[in-house]
Amino acid sequence: MSNVSEEEYRNHVDRKEKARAEKASDKIRAQTSNDIKVVTLDLQAVLLCPLLKASALYYKTKLGCHNFTVHEMDSTHVTCYFWTESEGELTANSFASCLSDFIDKLEGVKELVIYSDGCTYQNRNLTVSNTLLRQAFEKKITIIQKYLEKGHTQMECDSIHSTIERKLRNKPIYCPQNYIDLIKDARPHQPYDVKYISHEFFGKYSELKYYSSIRPGNRVGDPVVTNIRVLKYTEDGSLQYKLDFSDQYQDLARRSKVGLPSVDDTIERLYLSQVPIKKAKYQHLQELKAVIPRDFHPFYDSLPHN
């Protein structure tokens, strides 16, 4: 039996319908205007390496691989940011680095609209917000983040990930490069742009301090971060929000003495070297070399570990 009241359920359905209508409207805008870009983005479920049918793999820990996907709704172009756990962790800095790289390469765009789920460590957090504010200031564009309703976050990225999973079916994966090759080949008529990134790619975007919080309220009972439906980043360095798609934008208050974006802002590297994996995992991977062709052994031997 559900504990959700009838009113809560109606509000949930209303938010779902508004989000879908908003996304459909933005898609039309992107397809009819050259200076508007609308994207959806999501992280694929962890891909394990090696991936074989050998029984030796069942009780061994494997290397985690990550695919952060960006889909452009006007051109259907897809960018996949791919890395292994030995090159970077799953933190807000990782996703901020991918978004910053994607936006850096945009040309002729005046407005970027980003759709995603509301996952806080990935899409709805201070690090990503300060990063997008910096990009809006530097590129002189407007960036708008829009969050789909929880439980109804179906996006084009889901179809992309399904296409990749079908391509991977029954294919042996001996090393991460095998994933790269198969992902590139998953959509032959318009291949995915796969960026195989290393630890040197990631920046320490959490050091940006334009805003100290993205929570709309500061008292008990006030709206919290997860109530936000829309965040708007302007080229003058300000941040606005909506709690409902039909609301008017409100300014997000700066709660402490923090600075505006500047052309002098620099981003330090997040990692100075590869990220060590646990000793037990390294040992398991060494044992799995028994079912992996010899040509791939050097990759596993070179993995950093504690």
Automatic annotation (TrEMBL):
Pfam name, any one: DUF7869
Domain called DUF7869: residue spans: 81-191
InterPro entries found in the cross-reference section: DUF7869
Residue stretches of biased makeup (Basic and acidic residues): 7-26
Region (Disordered): 1-26
Taxonomy, superkingdom: Eukaryota
Protein name as annotated: DUF7869 domain-containing protein
Provenance organism: Mytilus edulis (Blue mussel)
